[in-house]
Amino acid sequence: MLLAVVFLVFGAVQITNHQHLLNAHRIDLQGFHFELLLTHLTELENRLQTTLHEIAQNQSQQLEQLKLLRYQCDSTLLHSDTLQPNSNYRLENISGLSNVPSLDGEWIVFQYRSNGSVDFNRTWDEYRTGFGSTRGEHWLGLAALEQILTKRSHELLIVMENFKGTTVYAHYAAFRIGTEQEKYAITTVGKYDGTAGDSLSFHNGSKFTTFDQDNDRHTLNCATVYGGGWWFKDCYSCFLNGVYITTSQGMEKGLIWYSFTGPFESLKSTKMMIRPTGAL
């Protein structure tokens, strides 16, 4: 009888030990599955992050391509050298101007002065249609300029240099002119920033005047007095289409930007440019 009890107790102990062993195996197995699951989750997270990064890169590249295509559609450069009404303009690539990256990129040039090779004392029709050569001094034309500016919002950049070799710029966040019926008046001059000082905002609302069409507010024709077409008021705070002169001290004529050189010192070169807002 005692022997039977001993066998029963021994058997119960063995069964208990076996159950503990099975439970330990189950715990180990559960831990292994948990670690395996964590590994898979980590791999999935890494793949997801990689995929999201690739998607972001592709979207950024596609956005840049769309911006480029949009700008190219608005500013197709025709390769004819001589200006024709409403058909031809030059693109200028700006880089590193005054260390302002937001100004970098391509701009449409609509006015350029550098040496006096082109006479800017022109008729209304000539200022409307354009004159000069895109390889040198030229005026794009008011009709073409108005047509471009009407398509969407544009910004304006004016780069100037004096005879001392100092280059400055005036940037305006928005710029627009009216139709010929409105005498191509400046209807919008946006916020200014730059190194030249703001001499253009004075002309906001001014109509364009030439010696044969007086639309300014002065009793005299400012274009006749100063020798060139411009958005004269009564008469100007800036005037970049004047007679090209190199010895301008004491003469209130020439290429003038009051806030940079004052009224008695003419500029060596000027370049007026536009591009669609946000084209960078």
Class from helix and strand fractions:
alpha+beta
Tally of individual helices: 5
Quote the CATH topology of the domain at 90-96 and 105-276. Gamma Fibrinogen, Chain A, domain 1
Q: CATH superfamily assignment of the domain at 90-96 and 105-276? A: Gamma Fibrinogen, chain A, domain 1
Mean pLDDT: 83
Domain Fibrinogen C-terminal: 64-278
Keywords: Signal
GO cellular component, one term: extracellular space
Pfam family, one: Fibrinogen_C
General description of the model:
The protein has helices at 2-74, 124-129, 142-151, 222-226, 258-261, and strands at residues 90-94, 105-113, 131-132, 138-139, 154-161, 167-172, 175-177, 186-189, 192-194, 238-239, 256-257, 269-276. The protein is built from five helices and twelve strands. Strand 7 (175-177) and strand 8 (186-189) form a beta hairpin. The chain is elongated and about 90 Å long. The strands form three sheets. Strands 1, 2, 3, 4, 5, 6, 9 and 12 form an eight-stranded antiparallel sheet that branches. It has a domain at 90-96 and 105-276: Gamma Fibrinogen, chain A, domain 1 (Gamma Fibrinogen, Chain A, domain 1). The protein is an alpha+beta fold and 280 residues long. The chain is 35% helix and 19% strand. Mean pLDDT is 83; it is low at 2-13 and 71-87. Keywords: Signal.
